[in-house]
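G., the chain you wanted modeled:
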Amino acid sequence: MVHTLRKLPYESRLQRLGLTMLERRRIKGDLTETFKILTDIEKVNKEQFFEFSDTGYHLRRHSRRLSVNRCRLDSRKYFFSNRVVRHWNGLTQQIVNAQSVNAFKNRLDRHWKDMGI
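Predicted structure as tokens:
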């Protein structure tokens, strides 16, 4: 849509405009929705979506780890409740313990920036 950037590759255009990739925006949206569900901001039954891992936590893990459900079909593998687990379990305790949605988003952005993602 920006005429002068038309011939540049996708990543260069995003960098010049200060935007993030669509994939990262989707992951951030999924993680934000997961945070809302697990902290009861969204009034839905979290047991319908997620199963908590009971292995405890140490080192880089946090206290709200989710377990991965095995899927026989590919269509089930890409459901929200399955695709977000790997990303959610990769977060730190500080991010997961955020007091509000905005604090969660800010901590997530800071974490990704520190990781160079």
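The mean pLDDT is 84.

Shout if anything looks off.
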